[in-house]
Design goal:
The protein is built from one helix and 44 strands. The chain has 420 residues and is mainly beta. The chain has two domains: 20-76 and 279-420, no CATH class; 115-268, 6 Propeller (Neuraminidase). The chain starts with 6 loop residues before the first strand and ends with a strand.
């Protein structure tokens, strides 16, 4: 199987070595902490000041068998309950699927590792079908230790729909989550595997029949290795996503692919001064059909960017992180629109709190005109979460919800809420 980049497992914690490989920075695993109340505000543009309140809804490892190290974002059900995954923890330390009720109570719905062949270490967010069943991916495990696609029924019964590596040219190591089309077919990406070892786009039916739609690396200038980049569905059934590397300049792409498997590179990063490099996450559409996303690195200050790609394929850097003191650094997650058309996201580092130069991360808001402001800095209070790798989801009142991979009362991650 393809090696998992910058990743190693040690005891009950995942140590994130990719930051050392790319930027020379290393995470500091915090010790035992206590709870949080309020996150401070730093303005990173000339805008009126206002208060944002941050609340830790759950600190992981607060109960026996709880999950640890949530890397992925959250989703809502119709009742307002939140669902997500943890990379580690649970009775077998293989990760969990959890629910946070609207009252703030956490329930472990499923712990991986109790049967064989079983997936392990879910790294991505979940998706619901029409019947209320959950679907997701695991990075490792399965019959070939190349990861899985799984279904978890509303009754808590888990089934491995597919084990990657089961056929020649198959994908391996799905970092990203899944999406449904209107017919109920699932689509996703794998970081490795495929005909050229550079990752795949795959399709899988509800019955578990998998097909590799596209293998990256098939031509000069093609993208390679889609990371946390899940897919989004556009017009005419076309799928859109990003690759972490590859392209004309070797630092990633935005791509389009048809349901028939015909791929087109819409944009190759790194082709102009101040451009972003290495998009870690996927993209989102606005109402006009333009795409928005983040790059982990690059930009004017080397700390990542927010970018826009028009329907004609023209790219614009909306914002370069690191422009002012206290700004966010290295956005690893995708974005979300509010009803007014503003974008929200997280940065995995940055802000004024935290040891060393990195900071503990931020939540930011940015207009489509490129005006950015930091609305929350992690680490402002004892017991706060650190290092958010996931994006946020919005409820009907404009509150943001997400996860941090570390921090909280036990140092093993949190679920947070940021209220306007």
């Amino acid at each position: 199987m393809d090696s998992i980049p910058y990743l190693r497992l040690q005891g009950s914690k995942r140590l994130l070595n990719w930051r050392v490989a790319m930027t020379g920075r290393r995470f500091v695993i915090p010790g035992t902490l206590t709870r949080t109340l309020i996150c401070s505000v730093i303005l990173v543009a000339v805008v009126p000041a206002y208060a944002q309140t941050e609340r830790v809804l759950h600190s992981f490892s607060s109960q026996h068998g709880d999950g640890e190290d949530p890397q992925a974002g959250l989703i809502f059900d119709r009742a307002g309950n939140l669902y997500g995954t943890t990379f580690g923890g649970g009775p077998f330390d293989w990760g969990t699927v959890f629910e946070i009720t609207s009252a703030g109570e956490e329930n472990v719905l499923y712990a991986f590792g109790g049967k064989f062949p079983e997936g392990s270490h879910p790294n991505a967010s979940l998706v619901f079908d029409k019947e209320g069943n959950l679907y997701g991916t695991t990075l490792l495990g399965g019959a070939n230790n190349g990861g899985t696609v799984f279904e978890l029924t509303s009754a808590g019964v888990e089934e491995v729909l597919y084990s990657f590596g089961s056929q020649s040219g198959d994908g391996m190591s799905p970092y990203a989550g899944l999406m449904f089309d209107k017919k109920g077919t699932l689509y996703g990406t794998t970081y490795g595997g495929g005909a050229y070892g550079s990752g795949t786009v795959f399709e899988i039916t509800s019955a578990g029949a998998e097909k590799v739609l596209y293998s990256f690396g098939s031509h000069l200038g093609d993208g390679s290795h889609p990371y946390y980049a899940g897919l989004v569905l556009g017009k005419a059934g076309k799928l859109y996503g990003t690759t972490y590397t590859g392209g004309a300049h070797g630092v990633g792409t935005v791509f389009e692919i048809t349901s028939a498997g015909k791929e087109k590179v819409l944009y190759s990063f790194g082709g102009q001064p101040g451009d972003g490099w290495k998009p870690y996450a996927g993209v989102v559409f606005d109402k006009a059909g333009d795409l928005y996303g983040t790059t982990l690195l690059g930009g004017t200050y080397g700390a990542g960017t927010v970018f826009e790609i028009t329907s004609s394929g023209e790219e614009k850097v909306l914002y370069s992180f690191g422009s002012q003191s206290g700004d966010g650094d290295e956005p690893a997650a995708s974005l979300v629109f509010d009803k007014a058309g503003n974008l929200y996201g997280t940065t995995s580092q940055g802000g004024v709190y935290g040891g060393g130069a990195g900071g503990y991360g931020t939540v930011f808001e940015i207009t489509t005109g490129g005006t950015e402001k930091v609305i929350c800095e992690f680490g402002a209070q004892s017991g706060d979460g650190y290092y958010p790798f996931s994006g946020s989801v919005l409820d009907g009142q404009g509150n943001l919800y997400g996860t941090t991979s570390q921090g909280g009362a036990y140092g093993l991650g949190t679920v947070f809420e940021v209220s306007p």
